[in-house]
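User: Need the bound-state model for (2R)-2-hydroxypentanedioic acid:
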Amino acid sequence: MTLVNALAGLLGDRCTASADAMASYLEDERGLYRGEAACLVFPESTDEVAAVVRLCVEHGASLVPQGGNTGYCGGATPSSATQVLLNLSRLNRIRAIDPVGMTVTAEAGVILANLHDAVEAEDLFFPLSMGSEGSCQLGGNLATNAGGLAVLKYGMAGELVLGLEVVLPDGSVLNTLKPLRKDNTGYHLRQLFLGAEGTLGVITAAVLKLFPRPTEFQTAWLSVSGVAAACQLLPLARRASGDCVTSFEYISGQSLALLAQHVEGLRPPLAGEHHVLLELSGALPPGGLRPQLEQLLEQALEAGWAEDAVIAESLDQRRALWALRENIPEAEKRAGRSIKHDVSVPIADIPAYCEQAPRRLAALEPLRLSIYGHIGDGNLHYNVLAPEASDPAAFKTDKGEAISRVVHDLAAEMGGSFSAEHGIGQLKTAELARYGDPAALALMRALKLAIDPEGRMNPGKLLD
Ligand code: 2HG
Ligand code: ZN
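Assistant: Bound-state model below.
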């Protein structure tokens, strides 16, 4: 029996090899990769995932796990007609919510926004948050150790995990699904799979940390005198608010210009070349954070760090401010292909990075910059677009490599990272080989060989 027939025997019509049915799953979010697969399967339980993996073992096939397919690096796109595309969207139950220990046990295919809703109904909060939350899935978030908009306060996806259930490359199931804050019993095996992008196993469920649902949000938009001022504002805001800064986003005037050009109805409240979107939140008595916010804005204005500031006075105004930040990727998409970067450096070095990068890029002009991101995490999307009225694809082909080299080299020189939150996938394997610490790369290869000796799991991703 062929593998596809065996999988169809197991899953019925939840296994398809039809080109039409597979088409949208074979292309990545950014349209960078168009792959091939032997078939696409939709298991509904951990046992079914394990059975799929065992059939792959029997037939000597490899497999590619896929969640919401919103990743930026092609990590969930298969690359050969011999691979099984394992889509986890039907494995989407919330197994348990513990309101006392404040944990949730959820399956890989749960859409992030649905997880938010489910726990909020219990007056609880899961803080991982990002533009794609309406379609990205928990398993993908964990496999890529996703970042997003609230990392400053709550950490990356992986930091929110207490336990994992993982189907290993031989089809056995590793179960560390314990809702324990404390469990020092040897290697923290779950860490192996967080950020491994499905190269060591398939995450099928997780126990996650929850928090009291924030009762108060105070959101402000500031035009600041520069990137250095934005960085100085961060510790002030953290201190003045009792460490209640949950988001601290930088948005350049260039990114807002792109937004004005390509997305209708979004107007920044303030003029200027440098902006910060600051949000304080917490589970506090009503009005608790407003005086702190006003006070810190006054201090920032007095110090000359902020030139002007507005505070959201309603939920609608808060949403409108966030829409400005969250629609920048869409504006870039509509402007044509951008050369995207996801760099991080120590926060204190962000001003030096932003000073030096344009100087080094000057040799490659003409180009357009769109710089924004999670400056409170030291993470910038230092994106570069073709000059107006030129062909974005040709620009990317001609200059993409040289531009990325400048952007990534500078981050590396400053002790930073070329991939802060988007992972490696198939897009950045060469960058990992180039910038990765040799000892770390050797250890990663040794782990891959020990856990997945036949190279069954997501081949060609992360480690080339
Ligand atoms: C964001 O922060 C995402 O909005 C996407 O990480 C970044 O599109 C980008 O470059
Ligand atoms: Zn981001």
